[in-house]
Please model this.
Amino acid sequence: MPLLAIETSCDDTCAAVLDGPSVLSSVVSSQGIHDSFGGVVPEVAARQHLGLVGPVVEDALARAGAELDQVEKVAVTAGPGLIGALLVGLSAAKAIAAPGRLPLVPTDHMHGHVAANFLEPDPIDPPFLCLLASGGHTLLAGVRERSGFEVLGQTVDDAAGEAIDKGARLLGLGYPGGPALEALAARGEPGAFEFPVAMSRDPGLDFSFSGLKTSLVYRCRDLGRDGVEAARADLAAGYQAAIVGQLVAKLSRALDRERWPAVALGGGVAANGPLRQAVAALCDDRGIRLKLVGLELCTDNAAMIGSAARYTAALEYPDYLGFNAFATGGSR
Ligand SMILES: Nc1ncnc2c1ncn2[C@@H]1O[C@H](COP(=O)(O)OP(=O)(O)OP(=O)(O)O)[C@@H](O)[C@H]1O
Ligand SMILES: [Mg+2]
Model:
């Protein structure tokens, strides 16, 4: 009973075919076009989705060995995200579901990042604590059931991924900055430049990354162009260490507050090697299970949307024809 899932909330056009918790295919077409702008341009993203969504869905079906008329349910990201980009995916999903009178499942993107952990192989059962760190969000999610999560703390300004992308840009790296910053940082000395680990004395579980970015701006200004060039790897290492340090400190604080039998990660920043290592060390120290998904399930993909859809109420035809996408907030 194949479920077709579509995800177009930002700059990746994604489709996946699932059979229960098994991913039969997952196709991600990243829009490299935004690289030249140093970030995602919403208008451009929406237009690119328009051209890509059909071929990406066809490719996902072909890779799964499935035909369109075998699909029994369609899942799609309804939000949060870029509204124009979301509308393309939602319209495509409606157009695929409506002729066959199939049910449609409007899915929350952040629930998707959590639900990537429910996929085969080795799915995890709630309760667990999930650190979600991505391009637009950074939050600690208390996951007590598969159908949603409770926000225990979140960023008061920039997201971790946003800070990484902006920092990478300051250091002359392309977009998205995460993998490039990680590679550059691996050649540097994290202690060479100290960056503030924000909110470290704040007793709560919220995060803040905007001051860190400003501190990198001032460092670069003080060092001058040649100085930055000579110290790029050390700057990247120190900057990344400050981001990882804050994420791990808040995760640790959340574990102090409440007993969680397991920890999971989600969102694009969860692909970061030093973060994965630091969280593994923390969990090891506390004797807590750590669930890590593959890198392809950390950044945006439609398999995670199909997974969240399994625990989200479906809308029957024709109730979803008037359903709309949402840019912020959500259905949680
Ligand atoms: N190896 C890595 N190290 C650090 N950050 C990374 C790595 N790989 C990707 N990222 C970051 O992950 C972010 C993208 O994650 P994701 O695709 O989940 O974000 P998004 O969907 O745009 O935002 P959201 O999920 O909040 O709507 C980017 O900021 C990117 O730089
Ligand atoms: Mg995302």
Q: What stands out?
A: Residues 9-10, 81, 109, 134-137, 161, 164-165, 176-179, 182, 267-269, 271-272, 299-300 surround adenosine-5'-triphosphate (ligand 1) (CB under 6 Å). The radius of gyration is 20 Å.
